[in-house]
Specification:
There is one protein chain. By secondary structure, this protein is α+β, with helices and mostly antiparallel strands. The chain is 41% helix and 28% strand. It is built from three helices and three strands, in the order ββαβαα. Strands 2-1-3 form a three-stranded antiparallel sheet, with helices on both faces.
Length: 83
């Protein structure tokens, strides 16, 4: 099992799109504790969207698809549609 997820930081007013084969909670913990990477610039990341996938490859394909959108509004539409 793997997950595709979207994080949001109010401080940066940015979204982070990713995937993991660990739990989403563990992925979030790593983003909040790792100051070396891009997400280390803020400590207020919150999970705003998740999708289950049968394997890591399909979760990665979904990540690439969403990153290819290039428009913040499309990511926000995805998040709003899930609520």
């Amino acid at each position: 099992m793997a997950w595709f997820y979207v994080l949001h930081s109010e401080k940066l007013d940015r979204y982070y799109v990713g995937h993991t084969s660990e739990t989403v909670a563990e992925g979030l913990r790593k983003h909040l504790s790792d100051r070396k990477h891009w997400t280390g610039r803020a400590q207020d990341w919150q999970v705003v969207y998740t999708e289950d996938h049968p394997d890591k490859a399909s979760a990665y394909r979904r990540e690439r698809e969403v990153k290819g959108w290039k428009k913040r509004s499309r990511v926000e539409e995805l998040i709003c549609a899930s609520r």
